[in-house]
UniProtKB/TrEMBL annotation:
Cofactors: (R)-lipoate
Purpose of the protein: E2 component of the 2-oxoglutarate dehydrogenase (OGDH) complex which catalyzes the second step in the conversion of 2-oxoglutarate to succinyl-CoA and CO(2).
CDD domains documented for this protein: lipoyl_domain (cd06849)
UniProt source species: Tritonibacter scottomollicae (Epibacterium scottomollicae)
Pfam families: 2-oxoacid_dh (PF00198), Biotin_lipoyl (PF00364), E3_binding (PF02817)
Higher taxonomy: Bacteria, Pseudomonadati, Pseudomonadota, Alphaproteobacteria, Rhodobacterales
This protein's name: Dihydrolipoyllysine-residue succinyltransferase component of 2-oxoglutarate dehydrogenase complex
Length: 507
């Protein structure tokens, strides 16, 4: 029997890879899951394990060749066909009748990390809903992963018994890593306990076995003058990969600068009485990413904020006049966000640099508006994106905002729903904020901050009147947006809101 070795799934946007290194040659004996070769894509290095034990009969794709997804890499001949009789196969054969007696229909199915998204390479196992020995139905939720953007539920790929949990709660796993094993089939429940025992027995041997690092990683470490104990491996069994070396080099370069600018001072002493009343909770991946991205935004962009205020009288009057008819016809409430979204889309056409981004020494102007609407959730701030809002109606915008907001609060947003935004609106007014300076959402060049509507005395035609006023704040990247452009944008938003008819006339 011949088993084919094929190129695994490389990622959502990756269609081909280059064969970097073969660790085995034709005629070599291989164990199941032993590393056969290493593929390099334009983003990551991918290891290819042996799908079955036996002998490597043929290498189809040589080192240096470019291969597509699911392309044939090699063929493995079963151990019996290759004439390789070892004590291990005999022992396995001896126990075969016991397996047959339990039903003969069992198969081990690996539970793998699902596709996390183009820019997400790892996740944290937050919760296991099942424990080893539990019976599971196909598509039943096994565990939940937490990435730096969304929570991902992992369903059971087959019905059976959960015989192994490879990644415990709190563990960080790479994309396509193994999370656990399900014994599928009629005898799965009966086989759960025996299956777990050999796995436990093999663990010490695997742990004590020397793990060969990726050849490309060994070369990179030699060139950088690093030893293996200075690099944390992310591959199977702690194997050091090429990208691990790059991360270690990058960390070493940034460490002195970080120490100089912000030394990691120890926490100030806390009295025993105070310490007993404190609670230490590990930051979620989402919160860590929010903190990192916001700080990166301040460090990389030349961020500046300009302010204005808008008289909300006309918008409030228009909304009060038509809100009942709007709800009756469209099935959604007419809020203020659709007015602000339309006003921003209108202003972005006149000041396109606020809707652009910097890529190296180039400026990329977007001839569309994908609006990010910041939404607070129990786990942190997320920014779902409503695509092509410049072509949407008020009703379409309100429906999209309501739907995205609900999904955000339930943690059901997908990766695609939070990518590709060109401009962002943040409404701190719902929490009572009177004035703030929003932080850019990279790589965007602008973000509008809305605030609380508050009655204030204003001079109107030489008379003092009480008007509902709102402060607006536009934070922008001064590297691409000049002060004139930023002020013009904010004035156009103000004009459109104080006289909504301008939106209809495209003025």
């Amino acid at each position: 029997m011949t088993t084919e070795v094929r190129v695994p799934t490389l990622g959502e946007s990756v269609t081909e890879a280059t064969v970097a290194t073969w660790f085995k040659k034709p005629g070599d004996a291989v164990a199941q899951d032993e590393m056969l070769c290493e593929l390099e894509t334009d983003k990551v290095t991918v290891e290819v394990p042996a799908p079955a034990a036996g002998t490597l009969a043929e290498i189809v794709a040589k080192e240096g060749e470019t291969v597509g997804v699911d392309a044939l890499l090699a063929n493995i001949s079963a151990a019996g066909e290759a004439g390789q009789e070892t004590p291990e196969p005999k022992a396995a054969t001896k126990e075969a009748p016991a397996a047959a007696a339990s039903g003969g229909e069992e198969a081990a199915v690996d539970v793998m990390v699902p596709t996390l998204g183009e820019s997400v390479s790892e996740a944290t196992v937050s919760t296991w809903f099942k424990k080893v020995g539990d019976t599971v139905a196909q598509d039943e939720m096994l565990c939940e992963l937490e990435t730096d953007k969304v929570s991902v539920e992992v369903p059971a790929p087959a019905a059976g018994t959960l015989t192994e949990i490879s990644a415990e709660e709190g563990a960080t796993v790479q994309a396509s890593a193994k999370l656990g094993v399900i014994s599928a089939g009629a005898g799965a429940t009966a086989a759960a306990a025996p299956a777990a025992a050999p796995a436990a027995a093999e663990a010490p041997a695997a742990a004590s076995k020397d793990v060969a690092n990726a050849p490309s990683a060994e070369k990179a470490m030699a060139e950088a003058g690093l030893s293996a104990d200075q690099v944390k491996g992310s591959g199977r069994d702690g194997r050091i990969m090429k990208e691990d070396v790059a991360s270690a080099i990058s960390a070493a370069k940034s460490a002195p600068a970080a120490t100089t600018s912000a030394p990691a001072a120890p926490r100030a002493p806390v009295s025993a009485d105070d310490a007993s009343r404190e609670e230490r909770v590990k930051m979620t991946r989402l919160r860590q990413t929010i903190a990192r991205r916001l700080k990166d935004s301040q460090n990389t962009a030349a961020m500046l904020t300009t302010y204005n205020e808008v008289d909300m009288t006309e918008v409030m009057a228009l909304r009060n006049e038509y809100k009942d008819l709007f709800l009756k016809k469209h099935g959604v409430k007419l809020g203020f966000m659709s007015f602000f979204t339309k006003a921003c889309a209108h202003a972005l056409k006149e000041v396109p640099e606020v809707n652009a981004e910097i890529d190296g020494t180039d400026i990329i102007y977007k001839n569309f508006v994908h609006m990010g609407i910041a939404a607070g959730t129990p786990t942190g701030l997320v920014v779902p994106v409503i695509r092509d809002v410049d072509a949407m109606s008020f009703a379409g915008i309100e429906k999209a905002i309501a739907e995205k907001g609900a999904r955000a609060r339930d943690g059901k947003l997908s990766m695609a729903e939070m990518q590709g935004g060109t401009f962002t609106i943040s409404n701190g007014g719902v929490y009572g904020s009177l004035m703030s300076s929003p932080i850019l959402n990279p790589p965007q060049s602008g973000i509008l901050g809305m605030h609380k509507i508050q009655d204030r005395p204003m001079a109107i035609n030489g008379k003092v009147e009480i008007r509902p006023m709102m402060y607006l704040a536009l934070s922008y990247d001064h590297r691409i947006v000049d002060g004139k452009g930023a002020v013009t944008f904010l004035v156009r938003v103000k004009e459109a809101l104080e006289d909504p008819r301008r939106l209809l006339m495209d003025l």
